[in-house]
Amino acid sequence: MAAIPGRLEKMRVHLPPVNAAQLKYFAALIMLIDHVTYTFLERAYTDGGQPLMNVLPYGSFLDRLGRAAGRQAFPIFCFFLVEGFFYTRSRIRYFMQIMVFALVSQFPFQKCFFPRSQTMHANVLFTLGIGLAAVWILETIKKICTGGRAGAAGLYERYGRSRQDGSGVAHLRDLLLQGLAAAAAAGTVYGAVFLARFLHSDYSYGGVILIVLLYMLRGYRMTALFISWVWLSWYNRLELYAAPAFFLLACYNGQRGRQTKYFFYLFYPVHLALLLIIRGCFFGM
User: Fold this and answer.
1) Residue 16: what are its φ and ψ, rounded to 5°?
2) Quick one: how far is CA 215 from the chain centroid?
3) What does pTM read for this prediction?
4) Per-residue pLDDT tens over the stretch 228-262
5) How far is CA 175 from CA 19, 163, 168, 172, 204, in A?
6) Residue 254 CB partners (closer than 8 Å, separation 6+)
7) 126-136, pLDDT tens digit by residue?
8) What angle do CA 121, 99, 123 make, to 5 degrees?
9) What residues are paired with 45 via a beta bridge?
């Protein structure tokens, strides 16, 4: 079993490279296809109250096709959310930008996808924001436990120092600290999962745990992508169709590429608002 992660990591060198901009623009396009499918085929109603997919020829097939294609977007945005966490100059600004656009996007999201529901369903940017907050807290806990050193190496060094000191008190202190850190990390993930479910956010707890998995396994990309796909597919069987997205992420070459800074923030609320207006003109809200 130990050989499997190593083999997965070696696969990366045989894949054609793509940069972050190419992956993000692809995700935006495929998200648009998904949202057009959902907004019109499932949430546009005829005068008789039937969803459009039930009256159009091959409507159900087109709906399944568009929705399956749309599964590619979310894993890509989650992957780059975690990457952005490590590369951003200001994590607080990064978090605030996501939350501001989440609030701006909420009305068109609710009206597009849940027009007849009295329950608030938070859009996917809330899920990303909750996941980002969880990752931020987990990273802070890890730095406290490792004295600023990353990962298991920091824990091992701290544990080794307490053993070399010959001090049972120091050793017990570090064991206690690690236990508290594990409890705090578990509490963080539980709290994030609870909040996503409470808000009925898009992808809910499945999306939050996906973000946490991508963060925890960041140093082992191929392994992280495989486990993340398995988790997401278990959470929702429709996510089996997200396999091409994880393949594309395996091809990521670490380069940013040419991209407009606020395009992806603006694209989400703007395209939802346009879809809502177009549907309203032809089918009503």
Assistant:
1) -65, 135
2) 10
3) 0.87
4) 999 999 999 999 999 999 999 999 999 999 988 78
5) 42, 11, 10, 5, 34
6) none
7) 999 999 999 99
8) 20
9) 51
